[in-house]
Design brief:
single chain; 280 residues; mainly alpha; Helix Hairpins; 4 helices; coiled coil; Keratin, type I cuticular Ha4-like
Length: 280
């Protein structure tokens, strides 16, 4: 009985430890689900960053094409300006020839210099405005490109960090899978082993209960036999007491000298007479 009780207690302790192992496996599964959800969120962020990267690349290409277009437009403006200056010079040359014939007293050099100064000032203002506009556009474009480059580098660094995180999570997930498989195998083996042991313990308990039932029946039978013996003893003691009482009562009724009584009656041939002769 003590051995069976200790065995059952040990099995209870082992089953408790297996229960804790099962809880740990459930916690690991919950952690796996959380990490899987986190991984999906990270993958969604990576896809969003990739789309953003593609958009920034397209924006950069568009800005570069706009810069090239502005450079070509500035070059075209310079060429047009030179052509207009040359055409104006040729027109002014013909006009000067006509005016020299018509009015020789006019200072043509002064007029020409004034016109040239005005036109050069106008051209200089236009050129300065165009250069300022181009410089402003170029500066804004460079700022956008720099911001896009910084954002691109930040996105690339974040993508690399997310990839390392995903790789680490995949390794940890694989380890959790291996641990889960190992725990499941251990649990299956433990369940099979303890099922056999529980069956043996159940058989032992059944045998012990059967033995206890037999012992209880034997005790009840012996108790009944003991009660019968006690009753027999009581009856025998009662009968003995009865016989003793009867004998004592009979002895009290008998005379103290039976031989004298017999002689007085003249029964010399009686047993008392012979007894008396023998006593004499």
């Amino acid at each position: 009985m003590n051995f069976a009780w200790k065995k059952m207690r040990n099995q209870k302790t082992k089953l408790r430890s297996e229960f804790h192992s099962d809880l740990f496996m459930k916690d690991s599964h919950t952690q796996y689900q959380a990490e899987h959800s986190m991984r999906q969120l990270v993958e969604a962020d990576i896809n969003s960053l990739r789309r953003m990267l593609d958009e920034l690349t397209l924006c950069k290409s568009d800005l570069e094409s706009q810069a090239e277009s502005l450079k070509e437009e500035l070059l075209q403006l310079k060429q047009n300006h030179e052509q207009e200056v040359n055409a104006l010079k040729s027109q002014l040359g013909e006009r000067l020839n006509v005016e020299v014939d018509a009015a020789p007293n006019v200072d043509l050099n002064r007029v020409l210099n004034e016109m040239r100064s005005q036109y050069e000032a106008l051209v200089e203002n236009n050129h300065r405005d165009v250069e300022e506009w181009f410089a402003k556009q170029t500066e804004e474009l460079n700022k956008q490109v720099a911001s896009s480059s910084e954002q691109l580098q930040s996105s690339q660094a974040e993508i690399m960090e997310l990839r390392r995180t995903v790789s680490s999570l995949e390794i940890e997930l694989q380890a959790q899978h291996n641990l889960k498989d190992s725990l499941e195998n251990t649990l299956t083996e433990t369940e099979a082993r303890y099922s056999s042991q529980l069956s043996q313990v159940q058989n032992t308990i059944t045998n012990v209960e059967s033995q206890l039932s037999e012992i209880r029946c034997d005790l009840e039978r012996q108790n009944q036999e003991y009660q019968v013996l006690l009753d027999v003893k009581a009856r025998l003691e009662s009968e003995i007491n009865t016989y003793r009482s009867l004998l004592e009562s009979e002895d009290s009724k008998l005379p103290s000298n039976p031989c004298s009584t017999s002689n007085a009656r003249g029964n010399s041939s009686g047993p008392c007479g012979s007894s008396q002769s023998r006593r004499c």
